[in-house]
Predict the structure.
Amino acid sequence: MDGQMQAAPVLVLLGPPGAGKGTQARVLEERFGLIQLSTGDLLRAAVREGTQAGQAAKAVMEAGGLVSDDIVLSILDDRLAQPDVTRGIILDGFPRTGAQAEALDGLLARRGMAVGAAIALTVDDGSMVERISGRHTCAGCGEGYHDNFKPTAAPGICDACGGTELTRRADDTAETVAARLQAYHAETAPLIDHFESRGVLLRVDAMRSIADVSMALAAIVRALKP
Ligand code: AP5
């Protein structure tokens, strides 16, 4: 950890599928001890566990649509009840609709927290299919890789934990990515204006290398005041 902060910061990472939200959230988690809260990861866990929420979400996720606000808010509320969130959080993939953005204020206020920065990762949509189709993830520790942009040091072996089960997501097909991009532009991109009007929006050019984007984000986190 190279950062010490006095209060629990709350960061929101906004960006279309493939923008690098998950990749960068993991870097910030590692560097600053913040907690990555990915609603996509929480929903995938619910699908794996076969919970009622997971069963309702599965088909919607496979089609590239947005899971209902009720389900997402309930899953996030449960996660926010865990004590580690007092270290500060990075919201990865949440909020995604106007209703979620409104609800977020209440969820955070109940815990004495508020959004410190909403960071829009700006990218060219056309490059996102390549990013997503090359993505694979370690089933053991969740570390993410890319066939070309972030390969494992040794083929088929996770650099972080040595695991050998590298998986691709069921919704990472070209057709589903098109639906996910459409959902992003229809429902989530308008939140950029929402956070701008709150005075917490920052834009980061995420077409740069993973390391360069990480540097830009780390500077933002360091500048966040309690
Ligand atoms: P979610 O899991 O949130 O997926 P997403 O938003 O589509 O985003 P991705 O995880 O695909 O991309 P990312 O931006 O994290 O990119 P990554 O860092 O992996 O959601 C999945 C589904 O769950 C949704 O479709 C929806 O159905 C449901 N859902 C989730 N949250 C919801 C909500 N709040 N409301 C309703 N429904 C919800 O990077 C991608 C690849 O590119 C990686 O291989 C990486 O190594 C590489 N890469 C990253 N950065 C760079 C770079 N700078 N240069 C080159 N390569 C890079």
